[in-house]
Design goal:
By secondary structure, the protein is an alpha/beta fold. The protein contains 15 helices and twelve strands. A six-stranded mixed sheet has the order 3-4-5-2-1-6.
């Protein structure tokens, strides 16, 4: 924390590149290599400057000056906007290293922001999620966490538990007076149940959070040559899968992603399901079964109306999944007199693109009905560490509830409450967080953050 760090904060290869410098000697280091004296600059100002190596002009740049504590890291900081030449950027970094800086580690800027109280730990992790967000839903989830909505919810929960703990601790201090009771047990039980319900509700959004972060998996399943690969190509707008009239062309699962109404969906084209003696095709069919297990939504694709035996088979395979039954090649049918056979069907022509937009809307609705898409204002857990902590907090609050219902001792109830409070504090880092945990969290960041 006493060292001044520098790093390239933008991806190489662009027209511009930004180098970040942060630490107690940031102003001195930058002033040593450019024509602007940062010590004399007002906070939050931008200055035109020349980077000079002796008398050699390296680049004309913009220097942005931030004074502690009003910077991203909470330290004195400078951002140098250079031209995007790899030579220029490397040369500027070399000169900064020669003048007392060292290269920043992955996530070190955000770690310093956390350690300097600019954000809590869950907000710091939201920075990485924001950088990695690839669709509207994941962006909104990261923004919500960065703004502190999740942290505020945890503060409310901890404050309620702290009140109860304080009253129980007071009882323990006056343990000589057996008839003295500061905390009403019925009120304590009611509050513990309310708190536990909210913790479980937050943990329950993790499935939705994972879908938002990694894409909702949708398996396209059916017999050979019904048009699964054609449908994948039409959905993603690219020739992603090989198309052939030969049965069994697809031997492995093929994946691609698209965004529907701001939500990422991950489509999986699978090998056609049929009896086969071909060893490679058999392995492909086994992978189809695994794809069905992992999928949240299964599209059963047909090119003829399914028989009753097929309907029973697909119902067995898709237990617990959202299922869409789709009839392909509808251009070959007299749709005016078409009557679905036993199951409601969505009719499309993957070859000609007929009904594809309708199918996308139905896929989105199935995801919504499965609870994978919520309201923009909802708090959604996307981080595995947060989920694990919430599960442990639930276990502790459940122990509090059990202890109260069994009328167990005050010291046992107080200890379970303390455990719940500490676990919730781990999420935001509001109690002492081990360096190993911090290193593990911030090692996944890019260097410039």
């Amino acid at each position: 924390m006493n060292e001044t760090i520098c790093a390239l904060a933008t991806a190489p290869g662009g027209a511009l590149g930004i180098i970040r410098v942060s630490g107690t000697e940031a102003f001195a280091a930058v002033s040593s290599i450019c024509s602007v004296h940062c010590d004399c600059c007002a906070a939050n100002t931008i200055h035109l400057a020349r980077i000079l190596d002796g008398s050699e002009l390296i680049d004309e740049v913009l220097v942005s000056v931030f004074r502690a504590p009003h910077s991203y890291t909470g330290e004195d900081a400078v951002e140098i906007s250079c031209h995007g030449s790899i030579y220029i950027l490397n040369r500027v970094l070399e000169m900064l290293l020669e003048h007392g800086c060292r290269m920043a580690k992955p996530g070190e800027y955000t770690m310093r922001a956390y350690l300097n109280g600019k954000m809590d730990l869950s907000q710091a992790e939201a920075v990485a999620d924001l950088v990695a967000s690839s669709n509207k839903a994941s962006h909104l989830a990261a923004i919500s966490q960065l703004k502190g909505q999740f942290s505020n919810e945890l503060v409310l929960l901890r404050n309620e538990l702290l009140k109860l703990t304080s009253l129980l601790e007071l009882e323990l201090d006056f343990s000589d007076h057996e008839d003295l009771e500061f905390a009403d047990r019925s009120e304590l039980l009611e509050l513990a149940e309310i708190t536990d319900a909210r913790i479980r509700e937050l943990a329950g959004t993790f499935k939705q959070g994972q879908a938002i972060k990694h894409g909702i998996p949708v398996a396209i399943v059916g017999k050979t040559n019904v048009g699964k690969s054609t449908l994948l190509n039409k959905l993603v707008g690219d020739d992603r899968a090989i198309i052939s009239s030969i049965h069994g062309t697809t031997r492995d699962t093929i994946e691609d992603e698209i965004e529907i109404d701001g939500v990422k969906f991950r489509f999986i084209d699978t090998a056609g399901i049929r009896e086969t003696t071909d060893e490679i095709e058999r392995i492909g069919i086994e992978r189809t079964m695994r794809a069905i297990e992992k999928a949240r939504i299964v599209i059963w694709l047909f090119d003829t109306l399914p028989a009753r035996s097929e309907i029973l088979k697909m119902a067995e395979l898709t237990k617990g999944k959202r299922e869409l039954d789709v009839l392909n090649k509808c251009d070959l049918y007299d749709m005016e007199h078409f009557v679905p056979n036993m199951v409601p069907m969505t009719c499309i022509s993957a070859k000609h693109g007929t009904g594809i937009n309708t199918l996308k809307r139905k896929i989105f609705e199935e995801a919504k009905n499965d609870g994978l898409i919520g309201q923009e204002s909802d708090i959604i857990i996307t981080n595995t560490r947060h989920y694990d902590s919430l599960i442990r907090a639930h276990e502790s609050t459940q122990q509090v509830i059990d202890s109260l219902e069994q009328n167990l001792s005050t010291d046992l109830i107080a200890e379970n409450l303390r455990q719940a409070i500490n676990v919730l504090a781990e999420i935001t880092g509001s109690q002492i967080t081990p360096q190993e945990t911090l290193d593990n969290i911030f090692s996944n960041f890019c260097v410039g953050k």
